[in-house]
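With this grant's support, we have paired protein sequences with backbone structure tokens. One protein thus recorded is set out beneath this paragraph:

_____
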Amino acid sequence: MTSTEPRSAVTSGEQEALGRAFDQTPAVFRLLSTLRTRRMGLGYWSETGREETPAYAGGRPVVQEEGPLSYASEAPAVRLTELEEALIAWAAAGPNGIAAADVPLHGDLSSLTNWSGRTAPSSSNGQGVHLFIVNDDGVHLYKPGLERSAPLEIDGPEDYGKLLDWYRKSRVRVMDRRPDVGWSTAPPGTHNVRTMGALQYNLNRQGSTWFLPVGDVGLEWVNLLLSSYQFSGFYLQDPETDKPCGVDEWIKPGFLEVGFPIPTFDELALMLHASEAACMVQNIRLAAEAIGLGAWPIGGYSDDLLLGAYPEVARGLGFGHLERQPARNPSRTATCTGLPGIFDATMTPNKKFPTAASLVEYVANLRYGSGAQLSPEDNWAARSGGPFNEETLQRILEHPRAHIPDWVIEAATATVKYLVEKYGCAPAYINPVRAKFSAQVHHVDLGFYRKFYALKGSEPYLVTPQLHDHFRDWHPGTPDPSGA
């Protein structure tokens, strides 16, 4: 979606609801004081001891042993509306204008792969973590893109409708059904295995919306490699030999001087990805708390299985995976190549990046290719109106520290080639695609909390005014299934 496309129509009711979200919800400090994980949604079950065959379990019967929190929601699931999903998707990873890019040139400003702003922070602003949305319609990728129409996209009520527009126009369909994963998903013949986590009995249940950040860790990895070689002076070192990874000719004063073991470097890229996904999940929680929905942060599941690494157990999201020789796979990790044309993982070898050179060139072009923020041709910042004034932007573009020296490109390419030749791919020790932390959002079954939880006045302390009044405020004319 480009910033010049006409916006879709927003009804008066939708505009009123958007205004309520922006202007009438509790302040952030009030939200933090009540923020809780409310896992029990309408239509959910908890340790009932009764067998059920929910759609999310792929038609397999499931049963959770009876316990002290035995509860079967008597109300049918009520799925989130388009507006509710649009608000939460934008809070998680939506456009919000132009990034500040307030990094000194000598502090590696050039490592920012773009200057587009969005609601969740991102290492080097790579925005390599993408938001997948799973609901009763299937799976979509929320992808508003990097173009921005103003330094502040949401600057008043006249801009609120953009949230719905981005949601309607920027989603890419991935599947027309929910992925075949749930609490009972396990390898054939096993009896006590919970590949998607023991806590996740209601995961992927009908009526819920599962917001799933999926990270292109490979993008972070390659960009970090370029940045490290140019500004940090350390090089990747093979832990098996303690030798440099193909960069011997550049190991000298003023170039590359300190060895950095591959597994430690890979772990750093993974941690940077994880922090971005975590920020998205926290934004989801705050947005849900603001409008009176339950937000359930979810981890502890096999994201390799979810992505599709083990189709004999579950197809999952159907991502492709590289078949690696065990002897060349030091950490025995699954290696995801992505969804061609939808989510191409920044790794090699795959269809989009068959060689080391093509991989490194792609990441470098995110900074310097035509239309990018450091390109003299169709410069992104100039046409977007920020963040810098014209004089400052010109000084940045002309400064030598704003550009990657040729030797850095050559050294990074040599390192990637070394890894592919020895280990079969790059990155080598970690999966270049991860989806380990996410959040499921639902309408809360207040009856569960009224039955089991301590009261504050006439309601459980977990029931906030926005939860109590959610159906009145956000579903006018619809009876409240919880009888609030």
The chain has one domain: 12-474. The longest strand covers residues 209-216. The mean pLDDT is 95.
